[in-house]
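Model it.
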Amino acid sequence: MGHDGARQMALVSRSGATIVGVALGISLRPVIEADLDVMARFATEPDAAGEFEWGGFADFNVTRRRWAEDGLLADDSSFLAVILDDADFIGFVGFRDVSGRPTRGAPKRRISVPCYEIGIVLLPEYRGKGFGTEAQRQLVGYLFATTPAYRIQASTAAGNLGEQRALEKVGFQREGVTRGAAYHNGEWVDGVHYGLLRDDGRPQG
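Modeled.
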């Protein structure tokens, strides 16, 4: 996303306007101030972050200060709230432009086409219900519609079968495994990598 696009998105970040359509009661919108207290749980509560996302306690005040500056919408990384039934904040999706940057686990390989990397985290009571799949489907549609991205990629722990199924339902193809890619619960675990091209066929939601 260019600087102009980031600034335009930041202008609506305080309004809470939905930027992606609703399906299964799920919609995406910029993070508003009321979301921040719930978001803080992912940085302070291991059970909220979950087995595959918890990386230790973090100072959430850093995120609050960044929200005040740019609404969590910027060139290096951006976040959108996942909303259920146009009311409840249940998690967030993230995306970043990795065009021309080394891919994770393969420092000598560079993506030469416009490429974004995405991720998601939901509160535990909303997992396993299809909400994460729908949120990522909407995020993919949003990125292909508003950026020149030709490729979107995602990575997850080899043991995170739920996220792997969600990505595959959206249309991502499994591309490989990096051994010892991440540190979880006292051990190094493998990472599984997925990619989706603009030209790929995608299942309908």
